[in-house]
Amino acid sequence: MIPFNTPPFVGNELDYMKQAVESKKICGDGAFTKKCHSLLEQQTKCEKVLLTTSCSHALEMSSLLCNIQPGDEVIMPSYTFVSTANAFVLRGAVIVFVDIRPDTMNIDENLIEAAITPKTKAIVPVHYAGVGCEMDKITEIAKKYDLLVVEDAAQGVLAYYKGRALGSIGDLGCYSFHETKNYSMGEGGAVLVNNPDMYERSEIIREKGTNRSRFLRGQIDKYTWVDVGSSYLPSDMNAAYLYAQLEKADEINENRLASWQKYFDAFASLEAAGFAERPFIPAECSHNAHMFYLKVRDIAQRSELISYLKEQGVMAVFHYVPLHSAEAGLRFGRFHGEDKYTTKESERLMRLPMYYGLADNDIDYVVEKVKSFFGK
User: Fold this and answer.
1) Number of Cβ atoms within 10 Å of the Cβ of 125
2) How far apart are CA 360 and CA 274, in angstroms?
3) 292-295 vs 160-161, strand pairing mode
4) pLDDT (tens digit, 9 = 90+) per residue, 67-117?
5) Cβ 211 vs Cβ 220: under 8 Å
6) What domains can be seen in the chain, in order of their start residue?
7) Using the 8-state DSSP alphabet, how is residue 60 labeled?
8) What CA–CA distance (Å, rounded) separates 134 from 107?
9) First CA to last CA across the chain, in angstroms?
10) Residue 337 Rama label (left phi>0; alpha psi -120 to 50; beta)
11) Reported pTM
């Protein structure tokens, strides 16, 4: 069986974890956590990056930093993971879903403004598959209506929009380092704080609502509880695992891009024949090959193809069920406007195996089996 995903492993992870253990400092904000912060800040050109225990927690921190209150409205696409919405629902927000673009599967930037009401507090663009949303238009709308922008860049680590790292453009950005992502620490994430007004409070929220970070820097003689917060710090052993991969980020990225391109080229004839659609990458975006997907005719054909590939030893999967159609989505949010593309396009999309170190002959085999399905 060719797996859908294999967590990345570059070779230094165990050695770095051993170093973390031997340092006698394996809790949060140890030496490797600080190294990850520094390297991520350098790679993204963001002034402040803080590791978290998950991207879900990075989003929850962002909701706190945006001071979301019960009844506030937050605009986002319905085609996303549940954590994107949960983070704001936990603060009492009403989620306002808008339709996606069928080409990138990202939020349709031209539908956002019509969804804004006096209760709107934030816009949450989701960079699907590591392909950037139209951030110029989104930030322009946010500025016009005095709204905050939180980028869900869970899939967008070291991908770019007009030369700017995804996650570094809005007020806040959120990364995932889950085992299915390009760079992994098992479970983990990061919050990118791009708004200077939020720098100090981000540290407080992440440290259980205390000013402990200032105490550790010698800025105060004792620390105390000063705000709401929680324990969002990952173990330094997890950070050590991640740091090994961030050191080789270019190598991982180039390997994944090569696999993605091999798929893309191989399926050109399938698209030309009208059997399936390949991913679309806008000219202003530099993606990170987080995933490779095909869009087939409809949900029935997708189910048939996934089953066929499984029989042939290939693990392929579908992706999100749109949140607005879920039980919780109906309770905590509403869809603004027409669902012209969200449901239809989500039912057509199928993800193929994609991971660091995916062998060329395995890609050839996957391509052969997909084509044989349509050849039937």
Assistant:
1) 30
2) 25
3) unpaired
4) 999 999 999 999 999 999 999 999 999 999 999 999 999 999 999 999 999
5) yes
6) 13-247 (3.40.640.10), 249-375 (3.90.1150.10)
7) H
8) 9
9) 22
10) left
11) 0.97
